[in-house]
Amino acid sequence: MNRYVIFLTIIILFVKCKSVNESNASKDSFTENKGNTSPLFTLLDASKTKLNFINLMNESPTLNGIRYEYLYNGGGVAVGDLNKDDLPDIYFISNLYSNKLFINKGNLVFEETTVLSKVKGKRGFPTGVSLVDINSDGLLDIYICKSGDYDDLDYRRNELYINQGNNDEGIPLFNEEASKYNLDLPHYSTQATFFDYDRDGDLDMFLINHGIDPGYVEPNIPKLLKNKSIYSSDRLYRNDKGKFKDVSKESGIIDNSIGFGLGIAIGDLNNDGWPDILVGHDYSEKDHLYINQSDGTFKEVIRKATNHISNFSMGNDIGDINNDGLLDFISLDMVSNNNYDLKTNMSGMNPKRFNDLVDIGLHHQYMFNALQLNNGTSLSNDIPAFSEIAKFAGISHTNWSWAPLLFDMDNDGWQDLFVSNGIVRSFRNNDFVSYKRKRVAELYKALEDSQNKNALIKKYYEDLLELMPKKKEVNLLYLNNRDYTFSSMNDNWKLTTPTYTTGAAYVDLDNDGDLDIIGNNINDVASVYINNSNELSLGNYIKIKLRGPKMNTFGIGSKVTIEAGDLNQTKEFYQTRGFQSSVSDILHFGLGSAASIQKLSIIWPDGKSQTLKGVNVNQQITLNYGDATNRDIQDEENEKKLFNSTDIIDIPFRHVENEFDDFERETLLPHKFSQNGPALAIGDVNNDGLDDFYIGGAKNQASVLLLQQEDGRFNPMLQPIWNIDKIHEDVAADFFDADGDGDLDLYVVSGGNEEEEQNTYYQDRFYMNTGKGIFMRVLQAIPENNISGSCVTAADFDNDGDKDLFVGGKMIPGKYPLPASSILLKNESLEGKIKFVDVTKDLAQFMFDLGMCSDAEWVDIDNDNDLDLLIVGEWMSPRVIINEGDKFVDITLKSGLENQIGWWFSLAAADFDKDGDSDFILGNLGENYKYKATEQEPFEVYAKDFDDNGSFDIVFGYHEEGKVFPLRGRECSSNQMPFIREKFPTYHDFGLADMPSIYGEENLENSLHYSANTFATTYVENLGGLKFKVHKIKGIAQFSSVNSILIDDYDKDGNLDALLSGNLYQSEVETPRNDASFGVFLKGNGKGQFESFPPHESGLFVRGDVKNAAIIKTADELKRRIVFGKNNDEVQLVEY
Known about the structure:
Elements: E1 6-8, H1 20-23, H2 27-33, E2 41-43, H3 46-49, E3 77-80, E4 89-92, E5 100-104, E6 110-112, H4 114-117, E7 125-132, E8 141-147, E9 159-166, E10 172-176, E11 189-195, E12 204-209, H5 214-217, H6 221-224, E13 235-240, E14 243-246, H7 248-251, E15 261-267, E16 276-281, E17 288-292, E18 298-300, H8 302-305, E19 309-310, E20 316-319, E21 328-331, H9 339-345, H10 351-359, E22 365-366, E23 370-374, E24 386-388, H11 390-393, E25 401-407, E26 416-421, H12 430-447, H13 453-467, E27 473-474, E28 476-480, E29 486-488, H14 490-493, E30 498-499, E31 501-507, E32 516-521, E33 527-531, E34 540-547, E35 559-564, E36 567-572, E37 576-577, E38 581-582, E39 586-592, E40 596-603, E41 609-616, E42 619-624, H15 662-665, E43 680-683, E44 692-695, E45 704-708, E46 714-716, H16 720-724, E47 730-736, E48 745-750, E49 765-769, E50 775-777, E51 788-795, E52 804-811, E53 823-827, E54 836-838, H17 840-843, E55 852-859, E56 868-876, E57 879-883, E58 888-890, E59 902-903, E60 906-910, E61 919-923, E62 939-944, E63 953-960, ...
Parallel strand pairs: 1-3, 19-22, 34-42
Antiparallel strand pairs: 2-33, 3-4, 4-5, 5-6, 7-8, 8-9, 9-10, 11-12, 12-13, 13-14, 15-16, 16-17, 17-18, 20-21, 21-23, 23-24, 25-26, 26-28, 27-30, 28-29, 31-32, 32-33, 34-39, 35-36, 35-40, 37-38, 40-41, 43-44, 44-45, 45-46, 47-48, 48-49, 49-50, 51-52, 52-53, 53-54, 55-56, 56-57, 56-59, 57-58, ...
Helix pairs in contact: 12-13
């Protein structure tokens, strides 16, 4: 829960250039580095570097992490050239003893000059450190934040050491002058960052602070949310001629009493030229994202900009991970990356508390790292829209993590990731928490009669410290795979030594053109990772030193963009990064194999700019503010996007879910099944040449039929029948002409999970169009079928001239994952009397046990002029059902699709490769979810009455190191099956147990068992001869669940494209909801291949839990619209 703010300030004038040919590397060499041989980093021994700093933490009954939890947050580290010799120096924070300054003597040897430089620090508990030229004399000064459980404000006053220049030996000397600048602030401070928020030319400061008593704050969130805090809420200080003034209130900075600020990062997240602020908060307070309004105020928008965030946010960083010119950000949490730690250290989430926090505005918070990918600002004028993709990226759980640092480790031009790790004592260990609770009760009872209370208290703390587990962890290093994913490189590089590293920073310590890493370790010597990219000739680079304007001499806030080879990179210069630390003041760009830089541009904080062309690589250059000129402020005309996602017209309907807790009946459900609506059907119901649409309501919400007008608006056609039938949950619908009278009738599927199985609540409905869009329910038109359904699709499967139906069944309510029956309904209407007959038993008996159907489509798969059926669902392979005239045959086992078992939610068929047969796109859960599935390590479910109490129990399993472990923890599992608590009395015991040990081998063998081996949305190529080949669709299509797939030639290039939409907001609260999709445009090339376009390029911005979507024709033949039906949300129209 600490913040590591990383500040390395390294001032290098010019580095001796080396030959381009000597260091010019191919892309292949970058790829090889991810799999291979020579370590990219080497840990240096302190005996060589003389960096013998240890952040020593001696605990005692009076000083420990039980009394003051943030004791374990450790200290920061800052790097910068403090004596102007072009070598970066290092300043370490010591929480309990003396801070230390080490001067770089060259050749990776350092000299400690703390006492001589007068930067030891005063009494108190220092935390974060920043380097900044506060007085604009060209010398870096040191600002130290302080905290601690002290009543005496002087112990908490921040310190500012002003650089006085060097003595005769070249050692920098400092004076402490915080009070002179009004910066001797007595808050509970984590870190400060300096930036010019009002663009007036001088540096202002943002200070993050934290509470010190989570035990009081957490149970009192609603009350404390309304209370202001003098010392624990965040603060913004404006620089008024060298004096810093608190302008938090008038600037819109949140002031409450629930804040635990641990991470701070600055960056222009909406690309408007003004710096924005990201603050990470521990515990229940949401993270804050402040968008600069360019008038001295900020607007806090984290709930609008993100769909979910981390819960216990630690450090954070801002950077462009995919080189699209938009700044992304990462926030760390403390979730473990192995089964034992997950089961022993992570307590179960309380669904009621989770939802209560959402309801009071604290957002959807999950205990995972968050990697927020910037999609641009198309949803509004100034608020960026982020997709959280940490699980897809492979970096969602990195243990008890502090500092994330985004920088280019291997000089390939892509931002990689370093994560510092470890906690001195794991005070969240479940067995320890249980023991502590028991020990507290014993202490209070003993204190009632004792004459020696101090001795009892002393013994209490000694006992707890003895039993609280220590948790050293390995710092993690990830290389960017250039496809939104990262690869862990620790084993390859043999960097597996565990530490307690909190603060960390990157800098080129030896001026060889690659970035090294410094870590501040608790109770261990500081870590120095020396980068070997130069020695391995991995890539070229450019280093940029900034000489800024008079009052911002280092050019903080400048944006530099580089075009080199096929690389386009954007970086902004802010030194405070990661956790409690400060990084180099030299901007570093890896360039890969680029032999020169075609274009290098800088925009200074006040908007002035400069552009250089033909810049040589492998050197350090200096950019001077004095060489910049005013930019031409002409508004650049926005390139016309394919889709227009702005509010085209108002739709007078909002889907409103009823309140029902699926998890109360089935604790271990993966997600709710009571929220699969709204149903959506498109058709011209009044024969006026314009498409209309029906949208279904949730339980106890009337559905609506909306008629399109000539001007493109939609008017609701109010009919009593919709209100009469509102007791049902509409999940699917289809318009078709059932009786051949030339108008469209309507079939509506009832679904959900609210009632017991076979309840009439689940009865589907048929509505006959009596003319001009007036509908009447015909009870006898369809057979009684009280199943919880999922889909309906109409087609003439028997070639008799009328439309028949397939109706998909989802699940048996209360008995997940038992599937409901799916059925075939044959149209036997005569002389205007509409009648459908269930012919499933005669034609396709296997459909009674088909699986948890999600979607189906009639298509002539074998080109024999009759309609076959493709069906997808959860825990199913795609089912290929061939129409043989007198029966249907499931040929899946011969199709090549039999082993593609996923959680399929949607499908669409078309001839994408122009070879004359139908291919398919199948929408799956996606690869950005907590659950993972591969052929080697499938995701498993077992269902049975394991505890013999008459109820159906669900157990999910996942693979780790050759064993299958239960997905859920001891607490929630024993709530469903109490025998677990008795069989495994401790979390330690449960953490060691695999599935057979818990449930018994025989029990598992006799249970209902499904395995999923792919969650990837997939293109299925029809090879002919009823054989198919699967191709995983790459990239952003895997960011979330795909519930709808719409096919059209959207860009009018003669090739079929696809539009994907979805998300899944109904996950149980220990699993982050699937919400990263804003819709995906897949551009087809006519050969069965697709290129995916992100929202800021396509213009497709569809936010929300899309359950159904459809294309709708308008009066304008040149324009079409797409209507998106979202669960518990407004209807959205997109035009193209």
